[in-house]
Design a protein that fits this description.
With 200 residues, the chain is an all-alpha fold. It has helices at 16-34, 38-60, 63-80, 90-109, 132-144, 148-159, 164-171, 175-195. The protein has 8 helices and no strands. α2 packs across α3 and α4 (90-109) crosses α7. The protein is globular and about 50 Å long. It starts with 15 loop residues before the first helix and ends in a 5-residue tail after the last helix. 30% of the residues are buried.
Length: 200
């Protein structure tokens, strides 16, 4: 099994012209928001809010905390936009601001110890469609027991379709570290699921 939920793509396939046009519009939004235009920043937030909420919720496991941390993250992003590097990707920058805000909250809350495992080989089988709901609940519970770093790499790569380079930019690590962390995170998930008595 490649991941624990269907892989989502951030954007459909676009031509080079469409990508350039999209990039130009994105930079226009950044410039306007950096100049203090709240409507432009609202557009930026709306563009990424769904994915950022998914990341924050899976890291924090509490909707009220998620809302509080996202509000803080968006405020930090708005204040930091004047210093945004126009050569950077806005998506990964927004995810990084949110990820760091979540980590700050987790550190401040004195979270319990997280499950961290060394990678070991395990076989896997495709899930039975009739067990989809139960499996999803088991996966969510298992995910909540992993360390924030493991959870984040699974959400970004398996959940939201980030490539290793983009995930590394969000997490502040090299691509090779993303690959290694992802492998360990997947094995940790399998181990937790097996411990809980679910099928591999």
């Amino acid at each position: 099994m490649e991941g624990f939920w269907p892989r989502l793509r951030l954007n459909p396939q676009m031509t080079a012209h469409e990508q350039a046009r999209g990039r130009s519009l994105e930079l226009d939004l950044v410039e306007a928001a950096a100049g203090g235009d709240p409507a432009a920043f609202r557009e930026i937030v709306l563009q990424f809010d769904s994915g950022l909420r998914a990341l924050a919720f899976r890291l924090l496991r509490d909707r009220d905390r998620m809302d509080d941390v996202l509000q803080e993250a968006y405020l930090k992003a708005f204040r930091a936009l004047p210093g945004f590097n126009m050569n950077a990707r806005l998506s990964t920058w927004m995810y990084r601001v949110t990820y760091n805000a979540c980590l700050d909250d987790l550190r401040g809350a004195g979270q319990r110890e997280w499950v961290e495992f060394e990678a070991e080989g395990h076989g896997s089988a495709d899930p039975d469609p009739s067990d989809a709901v139960a499996d999803r609940l088991l996966v969510e519970e298992a995910l909540s027991r992993l360390s924030p770093g493991y959870r984040a790499v699974l959400v970004l790569v398996d959940g939201q379709g980030f490539d290793y380079q983009a995930a590394g930019e969000v997490l502040g690590v090299a691509e090779g570290t993303v690959a290694s962390r992802l492998h360990r995170a997947r094995q940790a998930m399998y181990r937790v699921l097996n411990t809980e008595g679910s099928r591999p």
